[in-house]
Design a protein that fits this description.
Residues 1-60 form the HTH lysR-type domain. The chain is α/β, with parallel strands linked by helices. The chain contains eleven helices and eleven strands.
C-alpha cells in the first residue's frame, strides 16, 4: 500500500484543527478536494479515520493509530530536510508552539521575532490555549512545544523553567481604597466590578474559575480584546482588573495606574517550556527551544 504525503499532511491538519474545513485551509486545499482526498485515504485503509460530529471531527481508534505513524513520518522528513538544508535552500520548516495568554501576549513576542529573523527558513504556527489544553495537545503529539503555567499537572511532559509570571491588581491611580498595607486576597475584590478579556480567553477563564472556587461569580462590566484596552478603562475608573506584571511594565508610560500584589499563591506562576521529549524534537523545534530558554 502506498501513501501520498499530501494526504498524510492533510490528515494531520484536520486532526490538529478538529475540522475538515479548517484542516483543508491549513493544507491550502479546496474543501471539496480535501474531502475527496480524505475519503480516498479512508477507503484505501478500509476504515474511517474520523467521527463526523456537529461541530467538527474527532479521531477514531484507527485515526489515533495513523496519527502516531504520520507524525513519525513527518518528523523523519523534517530531519532529512534539515540535514540536506545546505543543498536545498528552498526547503522550509514549521514549528507548532502553544502558549497561555501571558506567555504569548507579554513574554514571547520579542524573542520569537528575533528567532524568525535569525532563521528565515523556519515558520512558526502559534496558538493560544489554556495550560491544561496545552498539556493535552503536547501529550497527543499535536504540537512541538508549549509554554504554560505550573498550576497544571506536567507529569506527562518534560518541563524546563522559563519565566515567573505574576498577576497584579490594577486600579485607577487615585483609588487607594484597597491599599491599606495589609496582604490583599482575591476574595476581597469580588464585590468590585472588573474589566476583563474575551469569554474564550484562557487567562480570563482562569480568573473566573478562581472566583467560582470562592463561591462567587466575577462581576464584569465589560470584556475587551486586549490588555491595552483593559488598562485604558481601568485608568479611567471604569473597573479594576488582574493583569500580568509584564503587561503593566510595558504600559507604564501610557497609563496612570495603581498596582497591588495579590497574596494568593496562584497569582504567582512559574511558566515552563514543555515538550513530550526534548531529545525527540525536530532540529527546527530544538533551535526554537534553545532560543526561548536562552532569552
Amino acid at each position: 500500500m502506498r501513501y501520498d504525503l499530501i494526504d498524510l499532511k492533510l490528515f494531520l491538519d484536520i486532526l490538529d484543527a478538529g475540522s475538515i474545513t479548517r484542516g483543508a485551509e491549513r493544507s491550502h486545499l479546496a474543501l471539496a478536494s480535501a474531502s475527496a482526498r480524505l475519503k480516498g485515504l479512508e477507503e484505501s485503509l478500509g476504515t474511517p479515520l474520523f467521527e463526523r460530529q456537529r461541530h467538527g471531527v474527532s479521531p477514531t481508534p484507527a485515526g489515533h493509530a495513523l496519527a502516531h505513524h504520520a507524525r513519525a513520518v513527518t518528523h523523519q522528513l523534517e530531519l532529512m530536510a534539515d540535514e540536506l538544508g545546505d543543498f536545498a535552500s528552498g526547503l522550509r520548516a514549521r514549528v507548532r508552539l502553544l502558549g497561555n495568554t501571558a506567555a504569548l501576549a507579554e513574554h514571547l513576542p520579542g524573542v520569537l521575532g528575533d528567532f524568525l529573523l535569525a532563521h528565515p527558513q523556519i515558520d512558526l504556527d502559534i496558538e493560544e490555549r489554556p495550560s491544561h489544553a496545552i498539556v493535552e495537545a503536547l501529550s497527543r503529539g499535536q504540537a512541538d512545544l508549549g509554554v504554560l503555567a505550573d498550576n497544571t499537572d506536567l507529569a506527562a511532559l518534560e518541563a524546563r523553567p522559563l519565566r515567573i509570571d505574576r498577576l497584579l491588581l490594577v486600579t485607577r491611580l487615585d483609588d487607594a481604597s484597597l491599599d491599606d498595607g495589609q496582604p490583599l486576597h482575591f476574595e476581597q475584590l469580588l464585590d468590585r466590578a472588573f474589566i476583563g478579556l474575551g469569554r474564550d480567553n484562557p487567562l480570563q477563564q482562569h480568573i473566573a474559575g478562581k472566583a467560582l472556587e470562592a463561591g462567587r461569580h466575577l462581576e464584569l462590566r465589560l470584556r475587551v480584546s486586549d490588555f491595552d484596552a483593559v488598562l485604558n478603562l481601568v485608568a479611567r475608573g471604569v473597573g479594576i482588573a488582574l493583569v500580568p506584571e509584564a503587561t503593566l511594565y510595558r504600559a507604564r508610560d501610557r497609563h496612570a495606574l495603581r498596582a497591588l500584589p495579590l497574596a494568593d499563591a496562584w497569582a504567582t506562576r512559574q511558566l515552563h517550556l514543555c515538550a513530550r521529549r526534548f531529545d525527540a524534537l525536530t532540529p527546527p523545534a530544538a533551535r526554537l527551544a534553545e532560543a526561548l530558554l536562552g532569552s
